[in-house]
């Protein structure tokens, strides 16, 4: 059994290392560099920090004053709302922070920033969970999301990590409408030397059924189904996803084992609305939040944690292979306030 996992909440400013295997049957591995490559890890963290700078600059600004007063809390409230943390998470964070400030008898605004990082880390912690594959063979992963969220790119990156870990992967191109989507997935499949079940036109549920059946007979470790992008308001297309889900269960009664929503972090509060809508339709098991590089709306993860805490298995901070990383609450909170 494998899980994509990173050491929890590394101490501040310490480059987190990839975990060591912990032995069978629950061997653990990570998509990020091994412990011997702290420089690469540092580089990635730097990218997350600079990516979230747009979100964090106004947040950090709040703590440059000389006193802790109502004006500071008001400014912080505005900055959190601007970062798309949403009303509920913002209210929660403010009252949590006031409590921490009182308890610690803090008088320096700079120290309040540290306490906010703690409060954010605690709030985000329920989102930090590894994606485990290997409990079922094949582990069937269905991937959904709106158009252009980054589904195919994220599947490509994930496939590469799995292939590198000697997992036999089969991709199902369940986007039967868009030829470009199938081609894009084929490119990733070729690049990673994994198999693909693809079909022009036809029923996406049928393609997925064939893929899961093939995955079983070919002893694959993982089957990943890429579905066509759609808006949650397109009810017939949402029904199509439900059908794909049902048909997967016909091919393998225990599947799908994971239903992942890919959301574009750039869409802020709209990402939260997408998570709620897709979760209601499909009972999501995890999220991949993409495009956190250069967004001013990174606070949406706080809103998610407060209102729909579905695990964030991965975050995307760029278009390159190494830009898909596991989510760490502490790192994210620190990057947000850097
Ligand atoms: N900057 C940045 N770009 C990303 C990230 N993830 C994906 N992209 C880009 O977003 C664009 C859309 O990605 P796709 O993977 O094609 O999105 P999709 O959800 O499969 O799109 P549809 O098939 O149309 O639904 C591409 O140009 C990707 O390179 C990310 O984390 N950061």
From TrEMBL:
Q: Which residues are GTP-binding?
A: 145-152, 226-230, 290-293
Q: Which residues form the SRP54-type proteins GTP-binding domain?
A: 311-324
* Catalysis performed (reactions): GTP + H2O = GDP + phosphate + H(+)
What would be one Gene Ontology cellular-component term for the protein?
Answer: plasma membrane
Q: Which Gene3D superfamilies match?
A: P-loop containing nucleotide triphosphate hydrolases, Signal recognition particle SRP54, nucleotide-binding domain
Q: What class of enzyme is it?
A: hydrolase
* Topological category with respect to the lipid bilayer: Peripheral membrane protein
Tell me the compartments it is located in: Cell membrane; Cytoplasm
Q: Which UniProt keywords apply?
A: Cell membrane, Cytoplasm, GTP-binding, Hydrolase, Membrane, Nucleotide-binding, Receptor
Annotated stretches, region: Disordered? 1-41
Supply the source organism for this entry: Caldimonas caldifontis
What highest taxon heads this organism's lineage?
Bacteria
Q: Which PANTHER family match?
A: SIGNAL RECOGNITION PARTICLE RECEPTOR SUBUNIT ALPHA
**What is the role of this chain?**
Involved in targeting and insertion of nascent membrane proteins into the cytoplasmic membrane. Acts as a receptor for the complex formed by the signal recognition particle (SRP) and the ribosome-nascent chain (RNC). Interaction with SRP-RNC leads to the transfer of the RNC complex to the Sec translocase for insertion into the membrane, the hydrolysis of GTP by both Ffh and FtsY, and the dissociation of the SRP-FtsY complex into the individual components.
Q: What is this protein called?
A: Signal recognition particle receptor FtsY
Ranges of Low complexity composition bias in the record: 15-25
Which Gene Ontology molecular function entries are recorded, alphabetically?
Answer: GTP binding; GTPase activity; signal recognition particle binding
């Amino acid at each position: 059994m494998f899980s994509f996992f990173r050491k929890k909440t590394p101490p501040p400013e310490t480059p987190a290392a990839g975990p060591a295997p912990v032995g069978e049957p629950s061997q653990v591995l990570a998509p990020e560099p091994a412990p011997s490559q702290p420089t690469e890890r540092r580089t990635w963290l730097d990218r997350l920090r600079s990516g979230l700078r747009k979100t964090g600059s106004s947040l950090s600004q709040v703590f440059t004053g000389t006193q802790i007063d109502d004006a500071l809390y008001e400014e912080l409230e505005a900055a959190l709302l601007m970062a798309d943390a949403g009303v509920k998470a913002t209210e929660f964070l403010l009252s949590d922070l006031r409590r921490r400030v009182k308890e610690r008898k803090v008088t320096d605004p700079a120290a309040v920033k540290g306490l906010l990082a703690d409060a954010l880390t605690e709030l985000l912690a329920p989102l930090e969970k590894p994606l485990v594959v290997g409990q079922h063979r094949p582990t069937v992963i269905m991937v959904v999301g709106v158009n252009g969220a980054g589904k195919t790119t994220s599947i490509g990156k994930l496939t590469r990590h799995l292939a590198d870990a000697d997992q036999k992967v089969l991709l199902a191109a369940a986007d039967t409408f868009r030829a470009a989507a199938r081609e894009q997935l084929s490119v990733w499949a070729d690049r990673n030397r994994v198999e693909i079940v693809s079909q022009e036109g036809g029923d996406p549920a049928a393609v997925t059924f064939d893929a899961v059946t093939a995955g079983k007979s070919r002893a694959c470790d993982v089957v990943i189904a890429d579905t066509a992008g759609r808006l949650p308001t397109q009810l017939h297309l949402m029904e199509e996803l439900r059908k794909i889900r049902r048909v997967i269960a016909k091919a393998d009664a225990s599947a799908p084992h994971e239903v992942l929503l890919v959301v574009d972090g750039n869409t802020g509060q709209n990402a939260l609305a997408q998570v709620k809508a897709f979760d209601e339709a499909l009972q999501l098991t995890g999220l991949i939040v993409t495009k956190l590089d250069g967004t001013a709306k990174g606070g949406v993860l706080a809103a998610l944690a407060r209102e729909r805490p579905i695990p964030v298995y991965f975050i995307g901070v760029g278009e390159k292979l190494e830009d898909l990383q596991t989510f760490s609450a502490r790192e994210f909170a620190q990057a947000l306030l850097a």
